Amino acid sequence: MRSIVWFRGKDLRVADHGPLVEAAASGEVIPLFVLDPYFFAPERARDLPHRMQFLLASLAELAATLAGLGSRLLVVPGRSVEVVPRLAALWQADQVLAHRWVEPFARERDRRVAAALGRDGVAFRCFEGETLLPPGSVRTGQDGMFRVFTPFARACSARLDLQAPLAAPRRLPPLPPGLPVETVAIPTVAALGLVPNPALQTGGEAAGQGRLRAFVDGALAGYGEGRDRMDQAGTSRLSADLKFGTLSVRTVWQAVAAAAAGADGRAYLNELLWREFSHHLLHAWPELLTQPFRPAFQGFPWREDEATWTAWVEGRTGYPVVDAAARQLLAEGFVHNRARMVAASFLTKHLLLDYRRGEAHYLRWLTDGDWAANSSGWQWSAGCGCDAQPWFRIFNPVAQGQRFDPDGAYVRRWVPELAAYPTACVHEPWKAPAALQAQSGYPAPVVVHALARARFLDTAKAHLGRPALLY
DNA sequence: TTATTATTTTG
DNA sequence: AAAATAATA
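Predict the joint structure of the above. Result:
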């Protein structure tokens, strides 16, 4: 049996890799990565600088790891739907093994690849592993899909009889001799027209394993409280590893569960279930990437206003947490989750701008930018998603800052104009002495919180109807 | 059994 | 208010 193991950018590892283990157990193995112009065309790559840097580093390490195991990663440019069937025929492969992706465009890609391979009698086998449980397999008592997180999480927990993660192969068979190859080198960041950014997380499976160990030995104890603190390193920082599969979600789950961290561990596993929920939702409702889940939000009168949009993007709204989030995103491709929520709430509610603009901006600049998680997070924040925050709940960016960045360290780090502001007003800089405000250059707020809040409530009430009186 | 209604729950 | 489930006819 000769198998192509098709690595595809969401499983850049050798540990807990079902297709690799299966291929190695059944005979000859040809590891393949396709540089699809869908992602790697220079104009596309320039649009995704942070993700591209992490991906290329992970890919280079994967190639080295596979070489160390006695195999070799073949990197081929071209459109997946064309390249994979052609190579399978050229290499006389019996089967192509890969991990299933949940996104609608990826499912279409796989459907077309499977059809083309099938015409040549080559099997295409998609393995689970992107999620803890197969999307669509977690059902309500009435056999429907869950639309509310907590019952979904309960149903997941009831059947999380996960197998132990698969060990990495200790050896792989060499590439079949005499294979016609047309490979290229893994491109560098610079070759794609990007400037390397040393502030980004380091890609690769080894760095991911290191981050997992550091989290389990460190911030996990105290996660329940620490995860909300924007000024502390209280979160896992594993989102990019989960996005690119340098860690499998099952590996992360098992490591945290085995740490027996009590309530802190459960709090983190709950976050993994939010990721799980977003993937299962996107599988059931592919239109979530373009449409609000709640039909009442169709045609919502989002404003079109380039001035406030640009202020939000560049971190010049005059609200410190919102601006810190914006600048952290552009600088290091990561934003603390609470700052993400505050920034998203501010864009959609205070500025009344379409959540899809923010969603696209975050997807472009986040190293961990993941279609399912990003989309469901933005819809949740905007109030139009599955089990979303009710639309009449509006984050107060000042209160959020005072509570979860009490010393102002987070906002001062990312908004240096605030360095000299007294802590008492670092989240309300308009209350600082006028001379300090003038000298710092930090902008006045683009909207007044109370007025913006009232404007959103009026707009939403007119479009969506009365809010619930209770709840 | 299954459809309907009541109750509980809800990031 | 809406979803999920439990209770009931």
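Chain A has a mean pLDDT of 95.
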